[in-house]
Amino acid sequence: MLAIGIIPARFASTRLPGKPLVDLGGQTMIERVVRRAQQSSLSRVVVATDDPRILDHVRGFGGEAVLTAADHPSGTDRVHDAYQQLNVQADCIVNIQGDEPFIHPQQIDALVNLFRAAEPPQLATLVKPVVNEEELFSPHLPKVVLNARGEALYFSRHPLPYQRQHPQAEWLQHHRYLRHIGLYAYRPDVLRAITQLPPSPLELAESLEQLRWLEAGYRIQTAETELETIGIDTPEDVERALYQLKIEN
């Protein structure tokens, strides 16, 4: 099976300009993401960037990178652009966030393994159990509810389900909540199709792109992980990441 990992990496960032090239303990963030992804079962790992500085940097440390259009509205569109440039026919494409330097190879493999089934999913993503109230009520950590087959029913920045019979302080005691981890895998034909979809009402309300796909009728299979990652969006996140590196080393 040919599984390709594509890492969208823009230079522009409102809160942390040049984010992919930020130094994290002697390696840039994008290099750490690439090295982690290369430890998975992926057949190939490619960085999709809109900036020649990132392109040259990735190639400089021996990684593979392609230059995409600068005006893509989302990482999904950038991934599709890169995949088209590769001129290969993959069985699945994994969209790996370029600001997740602590991504675990096992998390990538959990999605790739779903596509080894006789009937592979259209799309797949990761979920993780919510462990405390801070996670449950944070609008920055989208929650997800699933059907009996492990397919996503809905994603929301608000805790779902709402428990009418219990006070909010007790919600975690009475229901197993799941939050969404933003790692995606697609069949190539589905990736192409979803890039043609216009923004949807639910997506605009929640600011969650995956709701566009659900509204269009696509099914999103999930795999569960217990492993934690640290996303980098602000200078404060960089400090947290450096502290985590000290712990690991």
TrEMBL record:
Per its UniProt record, what InterPro entries does this chain match? Cytidylyl_trans, KdsB, Nucleotide-diphossugar_trans
Subcellular location per UniProt equals: Cytoplasm; Membrane
Enumerate the catalysed reactions: 3-deoxy-alpha-D-manno-oct-2-ulosonate + CTP = CMP-3-deoxy-beta-D-manno-octulosonate + diphosphate
Alphabetical keyword list: Cytoplasm, Lipopolysaccharide biosynthesis, Nucleotidyltransferase, Transferase
Could you tell me what this protein does?
Activates KDO (a required 8-carbon sugar) for incorporation into bacterial lipopolysaccharide in Gram-negative bacteria.
Q: Which protein are we looking at?
A: 3-deoxy-manno-octulosonate cytidylyltransferase
One Pfam family named in its UniProt record: CTP_transf_3
Q: Write down any Gene Ontology CC term.
A: membrane
Q: Which gene encodes it?
A: kdsB
Q: Molecular function (GO) terms listed?
A: 3-deoxy-manno-octulosonate cytidylyltransferase activity
**NCBIfam families attached here?**
kdsB (TIGR00466), PRK05450.1-3 (NF003950), PRK05450.1-5 (NF003952), PRK13368.1 (NF009905)
Please name the top-level EC class of this enzyme: transferase
Recite the lineage of the species: Bacteria, Pseudomonadati, Bacteroidota, Cytophagia, Cytophagales
Family of the protein in this entry: Belongs to the KdsB family.
Q: Name one GO biological process term.
A: CMP-keto-3-deoxy-D-manno-octulosonic acid biosynthetic process
